Amino acid sequence: MKLERYKTVEGKPLRLGYTTGSCAAAAAKAAARALLAGEEPALVRLETPSGVTLELPVEGLARGESWASCGVRKDAGDDPDVTDGLLIRATVRGEPGPGPLSVALAAGEGIGVVTLPGLDQPVGEPAINRVPREMILAALREEGERAGFSGRLTATISVPGGEEAARKTFNPRLGIVGGISILGTSGLVEPMSEAALVDTIRAELSVLAAAGERRVVLTPGNYGKEFFGQTVPDRLAVKCGNFLGEALDAAVALGFEEVLLAGHLGKLVKLAGGLWNTHSKYGDCRMELLAAHAALLGAGRETVAALFAAPTTVRAGEVLAEAGLLAPVMDSLAGKMAALLHARAGTGVTAEAAAYLPGRGIVLMTPGARALLERLEERKETE
After folding, report:
1. How far apart are CA 133 and CA 337, in angstroms?
2. Is the CB of residue 131 less than 8 Å from the CB of residue 20?
3. Domains of the chain
4. What's the pLDDT tens digit per position in 232-276?
5. Which pTM does this prediction carry?
6. Could you give the C-alpha distances from 316 to 116, 169, 310, in angstroms and in order?
7. Residue 172 pLDDT grade (very low, low, confident, very high; cuts 50, 70, 90)
8. Closest CA to 27 of 151, 116, 111
9. Which residue among 65, 70, 339, 376 sits deepest, i.e. has the most Cβ atoms within 10 Å of its Cβ?
10. Are 257 and 348 in contact (CB under 8 A)?
11. Are strands 176-177 and 113-114 parallel, antiparallel or unpaired?
């Protein structure tokens, strides 16, 4: 059963899909129900983080005395995705006990393992990201409580063919070996062209401008919006994906007087290299920029080599911190970013940038960013 939800992109209706995280959670829910209630579900209902309820078809039910296994096939809709069509399988085992219900997660065939620091999960853990983990465990808990089960339920997620599919992704470069990652923050896959994305950003900015707002925060994605949402008003935070340059241009054209680009360092550091579209297909200068600015500040060959070898900016931040260079390098990058922001935004517009790293908070601010963040925080407190 296909998800019959569509978005119009450049005049064409494109069908939405659902993430590997949704598939894994639905498979775990179906397997737990088969184990605990003796049912053979053909469909399973799943509430996604986006609030959309999915009804996903279940495949390959099998079970034994203390376990059951089900699969849900990934459907990426009209979005090109190498994981489209893969069967995401969950095997749920039950260990009855006197204590309260507990739930756990494990990984099997076709799920990648994290081998380098700096990713969503620590080294040695399966590459099942935070939101999908929460979805899977919530599904187990729901079915366990529904059946009145006392003891431990463990879901093992596996993906036949996952290791081969992972070779076509960025996983090997990121140090994720042995399979794919289980991903997703909303539970849905939304196909969209670049032109349509930019039009959507402009439309959201236009609504704010029409309401009289003259201050806005542009953030690449959900994680940045969530982090800076503690400080800035939600309604003033506009997700702009990779299109930082187009979003800034639109904000300037619409009359915004103060613009803050705020997000994860992994995205925003690219601005210091003049990359206004931060998608990896246009370039990836993160480690080169960090290494160059570190070298300018006296970093030794060993530190520079470690920066080039870092799989993510989270790990690069650790390298810089160990060398006592994190703050100086961030200040150096901020100076370059400030000049580029001023050149693009022009006179009469305050354009600033702030970037964070998980576990470290805000690590980079252009010269006027702190004052702008304080003004935004004051606004948030009054709303």
Report:
1. 36
2. no
3. 6-189 (3.30.2110.10), 194-382 (no CATH)
4. 999 899 999 899 999 999 999 999 999 999 999 999 999 999 999
5. 0.67
6. 11, 22, 6
7. confident
8. 111
9. 70
10. yes
11. antiparallel
